Amino acid sequence: MTKIKCTISYDGTNFSGFQIQPRQRTVQGELEKALRRIHKGEHIRIHPSGRTDTGVHAKGQTIHFETTYQLPLNNWKMAINTLLPGDLYVHEVEEADDAFHARYDVVEKEYHYYVWNEREKDVFKQHYYYQFPYQLNMDAMQRACALLEGEHDFTTFSSAKASIKGSKIRNMYEVSCSREGSTIEFVFRGSGFLYNMVRIIVGALLDIGQGKRNPDDIEELLMRKDRRLLGDTVPAQGLYLWNVTYK
Amino acid sequence: MTKIKCTISYDGTNFSGFQIQPRQRTVQGELEKALRRIHKGEHIRIHPSGRTDTGVHAKGQTIHFETTYQLPLNNWKMAINTLLPGDLYVHEVEEADDAFHARYDVVEKEYHYYVWNEREKDVFKQHYYYQFPYQLNMDAMQRACALLEGEHDFTTFSSAKASIKGSKIRNMYEVSCSREGSTIEFVFRGSGFLYNMVRIIVGALLDIGQGKRNPDDIEELLMRKDRRLLGDTVPAQGLYLWNVTYK
């Protein structure tokens, strides 16, 4: 048995998320279909670093699977890519340790979120940015970002739908935002992320950028541990799973 | 009767081209559907500066239509955009002269073509760039571009499917290419363009960039007036109707 680790990217626009579902086009579904063809009908289960929701993109998602099929690593890459649709691609194939697990061995994940801060619509950005027409105070947002860095209980910033069990404490190594022209880039690097956490944080940061909230509110929001204190989750299409780091 | 001129953009990915066709999703079809709703069921015919093929994008296409409906110009913009799908947008609405015609009054058109010059696939570029993996000599391509500028008979560089009647002489005010990172941008500004002309020229320029042809071949190619001398038309998804200029 060989354990294969792959770095993949996908345009989330036409996927009903990562996880396999009946009668839906999903990333897992397309990958397992390609692997089943390579394995002459045998079902090969893949394991991602984590799921992504409908419309969320990935520049550097990681998956693993096990196989008895013998192929040089470069041939694996070509064999899988030949069978994948245009919106899903394998960038790197490596042989992993027997003990490796794409989900449990993650030490750091990086997400980016992109806002197109213009009043005029850009048809080419609709699936790749969140268009936000209002003026934003970058200084205020940056001050709020700094308060989110470090180890905190992120209950206030996670979906109420998330499971109750498990710690909500996560360590954020980087929370930042910067503007280039009309594009605002948010970068999040952390030990792990709760369900919808990035999209809820970006929503709160946009409130702060508009002056609806004070940057210093972050400290109290973290302390109160109550999702209802915050507004809307921003849309999926601005979110990218950028990179996953392992030991 | 008021004549309305609109500047529009569209992401060509999910349109079967511009021109209306039964049971196909087209730019004209979606625009006329929106106008019919505004005009309470009355059919309003729109006229573009020219058609675009399936998969071709527009940053600045121009259309006109006639109406007896009275609306302030800003309300026109909002009224139409409210009824349009996400991949089609009206940027500007103006009142035009009675004599104006979006097709016959064009004095200059500008097209851009984008090549992604990388071996590795980028899933986010598949509908917006032509991915071309081979090394290109920019100097050679730029010399060939210079030879295409000015007034020429472009028979060699137009689709054999184009109608036989009509002059094939066009005036190119600018033909240029430049590289920024892995992106190669081709810019064409001219008095008008023959069917498939930009895509055939880019194909020839890529041959020259690979050393399959000499930049100086352009002169003989123009002189020979024979489409069969050239290779493939490059794919639609790299092509953008960038701007249309009127008197």
Automatic annotation (TrEMBL), chains A, B:
The active site is at residue 53. Keywords: Isomerase, tRNA processing. Substrate binds at residue 111. Gene3D superfamilies: Pseudouridine synthase I, catalytic domain, C-terminal subdomain (3.30.70.660), Pseudouridine synthase I, catalytic domain, N-terminal subdomain (3.30.70.580). It catalyses: uridine(38/39/40) in tRNA = pseudouridine(38/39/40) in tRNA. InterPro entries: PsdUridine_synth_cat_dom_sf, PsdUridine_synth_TruA, PsdUridine_synth_TruA_a/b_dom, PsdUridine_synth_TruA_C, TruA/RsuA/RluB/E/F_N. Residues 9-105, 144-246 form the Pseudouridine synthase I TruA alpha/beta domain. Signal peptide: none annotated. Its EC number is 5.4.99.12. SUPFAM superfamilies: Pseudouridine synthase. HAMAP family: TruA. Belongs to the tRNA pseudouridine synthase TruA family. Formation of pseudouridine at positions 38, 39 and 40 in the anticodon stem and loop of transfer RNAs. Homodimer. This is tRNA pseudouridine synthase A. It comes from Virgibacillus siamensis. The lineage of its organism: Bacteria, Bacillati, Bacillota, Bacilli, Bacillales.
